[in-house]
Amino acid sequence: MSTRKKITDNYFHGVGSVVAVQLNVSDRYVRDVLNGKYDDRKTELVKNIKTAAEKFKKQEAN
């Protein structure tokens, strides 16, 4: 098994497409941001993507 982080570990399936349509950006870029590829960038777009995706985040198991 791969130890690589996947978007579905933290978010529901399809979140990349939904957020991309809301913000008018590519779904690939949204998935890259949510997978942590652009964590070093503190741009307004990255913040907007993470904010829009919050409502699609899975509950953490206790």
Task: Summarize the structure in words.
- This protein is mainly α and 62 residues long.
- It has one domain: 434 Repressor (Amino-terminal Domain).
- It is built from three helices and no strands.
- The mean pLDDT is 84.
List the helices and strands and how they pair.
Elements: H1 15-23, H2 27-34, H3 44-53
Helix pairs in contact: 1-2, 1-3
What key attributes describe this structure?
0% strand, 3 helices, single chain, mainly alpha, 62 residues, 44% helix, 434 Repressor (Amino-terminal Domain)
Please tally the helical runs, counting DSSP H or I stretches of 4 or more residues: 3
- How much helix is in the residues? 40-55%
The radius of gyration over CA amounts to 11 Å
Low-confidence regions: none
- Mean pLDDT across the residues is 84
Q: List the domain count as a whole number.
A: 1
Major sheet attributes? none
Order of helices and strands: HHH
- What name does the CATH topology carry? 434 Repressor (Amino-terminal Domain)
Distance linking N and C termini? 24 Å
| CATH class group | Mainly Alpha
Q: From the coordinates shown, what is the CATH architecture? A: Orthogonal Bundle
| Beta strands, count | 0
What's the shape? globular
Specify the structural class.
mainly alpha
User: What fraction of the residues are assigned to beta strands by DSSP?
Assistant: under 5%
